[in-house]
């Protein structure tokens, strides 16, 4: 783990550095407290200087809001087509994350925060980061707020009507807040032969995240569901959720991997929907760089299907509305993988951002359709 250094009360100090987005440790760090003005903090952060917060915790949050407003005021207004709008939007988000990420807090060796009015973040940090490193640890306040938010979601859970239960996402694991795709998997007709004979009672859920779709498949009667993911956090989260949901006896969580060994009567995959580079671990459920997971799924599918089986690809067409992939390209990928489309079930997303006209990606989100593609070997 790398370190940061700063001078405080004429003493040089250091702490370990942690960043989920793999941001290198800032080279220049100054100590800041409640007296610092948003304009100064914004200027320093924009110039690459990190501010190590020593004031009141709530004031640090206020400062972050004020800095965010300043950054957003000066963000360029996209004027091109959808792909250009998306590119500029991501660039602006990246810039904002970098600048805001320079407001730092110091976690003590037991993950406590020695700041006035600070919440107890020890459990949230232990859940997100693992056992404390036994040395002070510097993190950005934005990252810490994400860790705190994740603890609340993990505790409260997300309601999944298709399961009649709550699913509890862990830090950095894709959360099923958009229920429309879960309903598709819960309601689509099963391939006629998926439920009969050895192997046909087996389903795979690739990239299981919280384990939500694996649990849906178990509830739909599959005797054995193998759920995989590339993320160790997701694997741990899925194990916990299937246990809570009472389907651990039928759901085997395996990986890190995309495909497990063998063949199944149904193979479900909900890859990240946008072919672009994620900037943090948290974004890995949303962005699939170079469509790597999508092509990995399509190209490996035929070799993992029982005769008569189906692969269900869950994919929204947002990438098409953003000008990042055409429908023709998607169909060509399916064909090149030796697959054919048996059918498609479409639904409209219900998430609130679809109605947010201030969102630069509003047009794409408003037009978005989520589909369950029923794929079979050609
Ligand atoms: C969009 S999320 C879907 C999660 C869950 N299936 C759901 O529907 O809520 C995509 C998941 O795929 C996982 N993933 C990404 N690339 C992967 C790969 N190459 N192999 C396996 N899993 C991958 C991510 O960690 C993430 O959990």
TrEMBL record:
**What is this protein's name?**
Class I SAM-dependent methyltransferase
- Matches recorded under Gene3D superfamilies: Vaccinia Virus protein VP39
Lineage here is: Bacteria, Bacillati, Actinomycetota, Actinomycetes, Kitasatosporales
List the Gene Ontology MF annotations in alphabetical order.
methyltransferase activity
- Coiled coil segments of this chain: none
Query: Which intervals hold domain Methyltransferase small?
Result: 200-273
Q: Transmembrane ranges?
A: none
- GO biological process per UniProt: methylation
The organism of origin for this protein:
Streptomyces litchfieldiae
Q: State the UniProt keywords alphabetically.
A: Methyltransferase, Transferase
Which superkingdom is the protein from? Bacteria
What Pfam families does its record include?
MTS (PF05175)
């Amino acid at each position: 783990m790398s370190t940061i250094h700063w001078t405080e009360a004429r003493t040089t100090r250091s702490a370990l550095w942690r960043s989920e987005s793999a941001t290198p440790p800032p080279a220049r760090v100054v100590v800041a407290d409640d007296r610092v003005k948003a304009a100064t903090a914004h200027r320093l952060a924009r110039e690459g200087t990190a501010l190590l917060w020593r004031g009141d915790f709530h004031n640090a949050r206020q400062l972050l809001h004020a800095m965010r407003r300043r950054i957003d005021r000066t963000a360029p207004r996209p004027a091109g087509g959808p792909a250009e709008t998306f590119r500029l939007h991501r660039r602006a988000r990246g810039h904002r994350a970098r600048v805001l990420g320079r407001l730092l807090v110091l976690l003590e060796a037991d993950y406590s925060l020695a700041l006035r009015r600070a919440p107890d973040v020890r459990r949230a940090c232990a859940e997100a980061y693992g056992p404390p490193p036994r040395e002070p640890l510097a993190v950005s306040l934005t990252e810490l707020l994400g860790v705190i938010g994740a603890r609340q979601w993990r505790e409260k859970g997300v309601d999944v009507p298709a399961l009649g239960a709550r699913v509890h996402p862990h830090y950095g694991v894709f959360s099923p807040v958009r229920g429309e795709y879960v309903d598709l998997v819960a309601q689509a007709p099963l391939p006629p032969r998926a439920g009969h004979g050895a192997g046909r009672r087996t389903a795979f859920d690739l990239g299981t995240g919280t384990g939500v779709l694996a649990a849906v498949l178990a509830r739909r009667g599959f005797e054995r569901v193998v759920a995989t993911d590339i993320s160790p956090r997701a694997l741990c989260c899925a194990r916990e959720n299937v246990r809570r949901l009472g389907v651990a006896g039928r759901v085997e969580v395996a990986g890190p991997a995309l495909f497990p060994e063998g063949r199944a009567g149904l193979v479900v995959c909900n890859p990240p929907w946008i072919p672009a580079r994620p900037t943090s671990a948290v974004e890995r459920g949303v962005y699939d760089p170079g469509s790597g997971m999508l092509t990995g799924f399509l190209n490996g599918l035929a070799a993992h299907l029982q005769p008569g089986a189906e692969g269900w690809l869950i994919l929204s067409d947002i990438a098409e509305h953003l000008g990042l992939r055409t429908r023709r390209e998607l169909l060509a990928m399916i064909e090149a993988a030796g697959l054919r489309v048996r059918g498609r079930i479409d639904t409209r997303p219900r998430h609130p951002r679809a109605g947010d006209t201030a969102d630069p990606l509003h047009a794409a989100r408003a037009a978005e359709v989520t589909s369950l593609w029923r794929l079979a070997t050609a």
